[in-house]
Amino acid sequence: MKNGTDSFLSFGHWPSAGSFGFNTDILATNPINLSVVLGVLIFFGKGVLNDLLDNRKQRILSTIRNSEELRRGAIEQLERARTRLRKVEIEADEYRMNGYSEIEREKENLINATCDTLERLENYKNETLHFEQQRAINQVRQRVFQQALQGALGTLNSCLNSELHFRTIRANIGILGAMEEITD
């Protein structure tokens, strides 16, 4: 058995005269094995690798196209939003200006209404004052007239004696009788 193992191990030491054998020298066989494996992989895996790379390239290009479309769509939306914002700002300015002019109109109307109310109140005050003055004048006249009448009655009562009093009464009765005959 030792001979069989020795002969197996000795294959690596045979001269390379066209015979086939195993080389057990790891350092010498690794680069050869790697190059053979790489050659086989490149030869047979080239198509698969190309297909994988083409698929990856197509996905990347598709993603780029989708990104460009999304970018264009976002730019369009941004422009529409900017246009709408400008319109809204213009409308807001118009509302603001209309609001200011409406406020000014309301303010002017309120001032005019207040002036009218003040003028009416002033007229009412003047009328009230005139009425109160007339009432006060009438009260003073009535008091003066009452005092004058009381004074005149007092003077008449003190000056009249009973005979003069009876004559005055008879004369007044006569006048009333004459008036009564005229009316009948």
UniProtKB/TrEMBL annotation:
Subunit composition and interactions: F-type ATPases have 2 components, F(1) - the catalytic core - and F(0) - the membrane proton channel. F(1) has five subunits: alpha(3), beta(3), gamma(1), delta(1), epsilon(1). F(0) has four main subunits: a(1), b(1), b'(1) and c(10-14). The alpha and beta chains form an alternating ring which encloses part of the gamma chain. F(1) is attached to F(0) by a central stalk formed by the gamma and epsilon chains, while a peripheral stalk is formed by the delta, b and b' chains.
Family label: Belongs to the ATPase B chain family.
Additional remarks: In plastids the F-type ATPase is also known as CF(1)CF(0).
Keyword Magnesium: no
Coiled-coil ranges (or none): 64-98
Subcellular location: Membrane; Plastid, Chloroplast thylakoid membrane
MF (Gene Ontology): proton-transporting ATP synthase activity, rotational mechanism
Name the record gives this protein: ATP synthase subunit b, chloroplastic
InterPro entries for this protein: ATP_synth_b/b'su_bac/chlpt
